Amino acid sequence: MQLKTTKGIQVTQKRTWKVGAAALLAAALVACGEEGAPKISSDEIDAIMALAGKLEPLAVEDDKIVGEPIEEEEGDFRYTYETHDVVENIESVLYLGLNDDVIWPGSMILGAMAHSFVYDPVTLPRAPITLSVSLELSSTGDSITEVVRDPRLSTVRQGISDLLAEAVTEDTSVPAKVDFLYEEVFSQSQMDLFFGTDLSYGAGSLQTQFDFESTVEKTRIVAKYQQVYFTIDMDTPRNASAFFPSNTDPEELAEAIPEGSNPLYVAGVSYGLMAIMTIESNFSSREVRTALKAAYEAGVADLELEFDSKDREVLEDSTIKIIVYGGSTQNLDRISGGFEGFMDIVSASHEFTPESPGVPLAYKFRHVRDNTLALVTLTSQYTLVRPLRIKQRVQITVDRFVTVGADDEGPDNTIEMDDFRVYVDAFNRFSTSEPLSPITNGRQEVYGFHTGGDISMREGTVWFAVGSTPYIVTFNTEIYDFDLAELHFSGTSREWDGGGPFDSDPDHGSNKTPYNLQGEFFLDGGSEHHFNINGSDASHDVYFNIELLD
Questions:
Q1: Among residues 198, 180, 179, 178, which one has the least CA distance to residue 190?
Q2: pLDDT per residue as tens digits for the range 384-442
Q3: Which residue among 28, 405, 436, 505 is buried most deeply as judged by most CB within 10 Å?
Q4: Which helix (H) or strand (E) holds 290?
C-alpha cells in the first residue's frame, strides 16, 4: 500500500496538519497489518517528528533593567543598585557530575522539560551511529572513528573505550583548551547564568555555597577553571529516519515520541577537567578579582612565589571552596579548598595524555527533526551593585632618615641635626593635556622635627622619625582620573653645632630635585618611596610610605 505524503498540508492551519498526520499514522498501521512485519517509511517518521515538535527558547535573549537604578553613598563610594531581568539561551550545558547515564554521545531524550533540566530518555532500538574524537594530530593512533551498531548506554560506553584505545597512543599529547572565568554574583539564579546550568541539580552541593539571604556584607565571587581535552561527536544523520531501523513499529515510535515531546539527541560531549570555586571575602570585589587574576597568571607560569604579597593575603584570608570534576596526573583528586587548593588546580598539567582521566564536562543538543541546534533557556532576576569610588584617601607616613653624607670638618665628621621637615603638595587632574588642580592650599607639612634638641649622626646612621603621624590626602575620583593625580614632595633639614669650634654656622638642606609621584605609581616598589635632602655639610635620604585607604 502506497502512503501519501502530507508535506503540502504543513503550511495550512495546525488543526488540519494534525488530522493529516494522524491519518498518515493510521494508514501506516493498516499497511503493517497487511504486510505482516512492521515497516516504517521516512514520511511516517517525518510525520511523527512534526507532531512531536522542536524545543523553542522560552524567550528572546535579553538583559533589561527593571525600574530606575537606586543610588546610595557610603564612605568613599557611591553604590548604584540595578535590578536586572536576564534571559540567556545556551547551547552548551554542563554535566556537573549527573545525568551521564542519560546524556551520552548519540543519546535521544524527550526535551519537553529540558528548560528545567529534566530529561526523559527514549529507549527504542536505534540505527547504527558513527562517533569520532577531536584528536586530529600526527601523534594520534590509526583511527579516530568508531561505529556503534546498536546504540545504548552500555554499547556506546564500550564504543568510546574502543575509540580512545585506537586513537590515543603512548605518544599522544594534546594541549588542553584552558579557560578561566570569574564573576561577582548577587543571587542563586545569577550563579546559574554564569555556569550555564541549573545548579540545583548538580552534584557537589554548589547551590548551598553562598547564603544570599545573609545581611552580612561580603564579596561573593564564583570562578570556573576548565581544561577541555577532546570532544566526542556523533555524525549528523541525513534526516530523522536515519535514527531508527527500518523495522521500527510506527505505533511504538508514536507512543515513545508523542505530540509536543520535542525529541533531541546529544550531538557532542566535551571531556576534560573542571574546577568550580566559590570565594567569599571581606575584601572588595576589585581586590579579590585582582588577586585571582594575579594568582592564576602566576600559577600558569609556575611562579607561585613571585606574585604580590597583598594578592596572596587577599586569597589566604578569603573562604575558598572547590569542587573538582575530572583530574590530571597531579593528584587533583586529593585537592583541598582554600588558596593552596586553588594554586594546585591552576598549576596542574595543561595537556591531555593517556593518563589524564577526563570526564564529561558539557554537552549540546540538536533536534531529531532537522538537526538544528537546540537552545536551553535560563532566566534570572538579580540586583547588580555597581560601586563607584568617589574619593580616594591616601595616607602618607614618614618612616626614617638615613645619613648618606656627613662633612662637619671635625675629627669624625659627626653632624648635629636639629631640624627635619617633610612637605607635600597634592593635585587632581582630568587628563595629561589639562593643568593640575590643587587640593591643598600650598604645601602642607607631613612631618616636622624641630624641638630645639639635636641628633648626632654620621654617614650610614638611620634615624627613625620620632613622633611621626600619618597624613591623609583625599582625592576626588568621581570627576578626576586618580591615575593622573600627583603628590609633590619636598623637605628641609638643618645641621647646627650651636656655636661650637667646628663649622658654627647653621647648614640648611633641601631637596634640590623635586620628587613628584603620579597616582598610578603611588604603590610602586611595595608603597615605600624616598628622596634626598642635601646641604653643604649633610645629606639625608627620607623614606616614607604611601597607603590607599578603603
A1: 198
A2: 777 788 999 999 999 999 999 988 766 677 888 889 999 999 999 999 899 999 998 88
A3: 28
A4: helix 285-300
Low-confidence ranges of the chain (pLDDT < 70): 1-38, 138-139, 200-209, 213-216, 300-308, 326-337, 347-357, 409-411, 451-453, 497-505
pLDDT at 329: 37
Query: For residue 248, how many other CB atoms are within 10 A of its CB?
Result: 21
- Class of CATH domain 62-387: alpha beta
Query: pTM score, two decimals?
Result: 0.66
Task: For residue 45, give the H/E element and its range.
Answer: helix 42-52
Residue type, position 226, single letter: Q
Neighbours of 518 (CB within 10 A): 16
Name the residue among 333, 337, 326 with its Cα closest to residue 360: 326
- SS3 for 383? strand
Question: Collapsing DSSP states into helix, strand and coil, what is residue 315?
Answer: helix
Task: Map out the domains of the chain as residue ranges.
Answer: 7-52, 62-387, 390-549
- Domain 390-549 in CATH 2.60.40? The answer is yes
Residues in CB range of 88: below 8 A, 6 or more apart: 61, 193, 196, 377, 378, 379
CB atoms within 10 A of CB 432: 8
